[in-house]
Amino acid sequence: MNFDDCDASELVGKQVGRCQVVACVRRGRHTTVYRGRRLRADLEDGVALKIVNPDCLQANVLARFRQEAELTLKLDHPNVVRVYTVGEQDYQPYLVMEWVEGRNLKDELAARGHLLPEDAATIAVHIAQALDYVHRQGIVHRDVKPSNILLGSDGRARLTDFGIAARAGETPPVLGMGTAAYLAPEQVSKEPAGPRSDLYSLGIVMFEMLTGRVPFEADDELGMIMEHLHALPPPLHRFVSGLGLPWERLIAQALAKKPWKRQADARALISQIELAARPRLRL
């Protein structure tokens, strides 16, 4: 995590639940993430605190936050950021989460432009493993994108921010629908999102890791929506050479307009990534 785009410091140094707030990490429209530490002698590890902003305590924001807490508290997977507990202080709900030392994939791409195929494959497999797990719990993330992928200093990529996640088949109490550049066609059509919607979004992320750009570009959100609905993704070899046909095929399948044409599930996608990346994949 990094400390960019953060102007919220009113809680720094104060106690929230059983944690002390150490620093502000990032302020969003409805929530702010802080770095903290637990006030127990036997728990000296750092934590992340996600707190609803005091000017965002409207019913719809709180419903979304409660949904996130309900869906994530029981998740336990090495490639999913762990949520330890949920609480409320001064009418502000908060989550206490695992602190991941490192930075997110968005910042990594901004620094490097694009990644080596073996690095992209490793991250993609880790996130596909996370999706396989959450999908088997009946959850659809609905917002897979580089800023929601944390790259730990331990070499593990982790999926975070279940703020607009929902149980498969349910309509979540959300504000907005995610970031347009990474949304599946069924999401921009405001149809129910399913596990294959997350695979589409991961396909966009894989394309970006390999080429340094997203497959679809437009001047505004409406234009991006039309691209997702009607445009074919450009081939990878237009931007980077030497990846090979397996990469081209798996990205094209992940970005199919119809969900049923995509990989059957995250495990099928993992198998294709491992085939495309041999023998350089690092897990």
How would you explain this protein's 3D organization?
- There is one protein chain.
- By secondary structure, the chain is α+β, with helices and mostly antiparallel strands.
- The protein has two domains: 15-98, Phosphorylase Kinase, domain 1 (2-Layer Sandwich), CATH 3.30.200; 102-277, Transferase(Phosphotransferase) domain 1 (Transferase(Phosphotransferase), domain 1, Orthogonal Bundle).
- It is 34% helix and 19% strand.
- The strands form three sheets. A six-stranded antiparallel beta sheet has the order 1-2-3-4-6-5, with helices on one face.
- α5 packs across α7 (245-254).
Observed structural traits:
2 domains, alpha+beta, 8 helices, Transferase(Phosphotransferase), domain 1, Phosphorylase Kinase, domain 1, 34% helix, six-stranded antiparallel β-sheet, three-stranded antiparallel β-sheet, 283 residues, 11 strands
